Amino acid sequence: MTVNIINSVSNDTNSHIIAPTLLSKTHVVDTEEGETTAREQSESPLPIQNKKRISKSQVRNVDIIKYLMGTIAGKDKISKLLKSLLDIVKKVCLILPQYSQYIDTKRISAISTQLSLFRCIMRFGSTPYSIANLIKRIVSSGNILKSPQVIFSRLLLEDSINVYSTVFDELSLLGKLNIIKNRRFRHVISRNDTWATEVDAIYSLKKACCNYKTTQSSKFDNKAKLMNKIDVARFTLELVSNTPDLFLIKSRRLERLLSLLSSVCSAVSAILNIVRLWIMAKDQLSEKLSKSA
């Protein structure tokens, strides 16, 4: 499943329920409406502050790497890239078996599985918070029977997607750890996990496209435009990488080719995620240096 880390954040000023995030402290990703999705939270190491900074050339690359490795968001995206690259090697060997004699595909598969479990474990634990936030959103929306249009509000839809994705992501982990043993139930979890990932990717892509359209005006700087371009590109790639899992393809060769395409898209998406995190981490480190100067 695409990294899909669901940490719903309520916009209510009176909200007392904050979902645990992958971050070391609370952060804000600036948008026109001042709102963030759970995916944006999980992919932001720390907030970008629009304050005066010292020269970014003083921030060393090794410091940025160390900084990213100290955040769960950074570990998650780097793990995703490594897993995708290993999957590409394994799938190329399946398509071109003449090269498999030079590569231990079983070991590669085992490492890939461990990386997948590592990412799932890092995401585990936010379901109660996501459900609590959804309930709070419903309660704060007033009488749904009198105002049924509330059901179709964007924020309620976003919280519902968060719950759907988080629940089946965590159930999927329990299945992988063999805590859930019933095969039929595990199959249902797997299919819903795939659909949840796809729905989340579609929603995130839609929001990224809206933000991209907004940032084309001259009042936004080049960095904001670049970040939104990255968002549109990576969510498109995630959508493509998830799609083959939805279809039951009978042709083994076609299935392997589509699976390889999925892994390639996932790898490129991970690279774009890391670039995005790198830019944000560099901003944050330059801010820290300016304060200590």
UniProtKB/TrEMBL annotation:
Keywords: Membrane, Transmembrane, Transmembrane helix. The chain crosses the membrane at residues 257-279. This is Uncharacterized protein. The lineage of its organism: Eukaryota, Fungi, Dikarya, Ascomycota, Saccharomycotina.
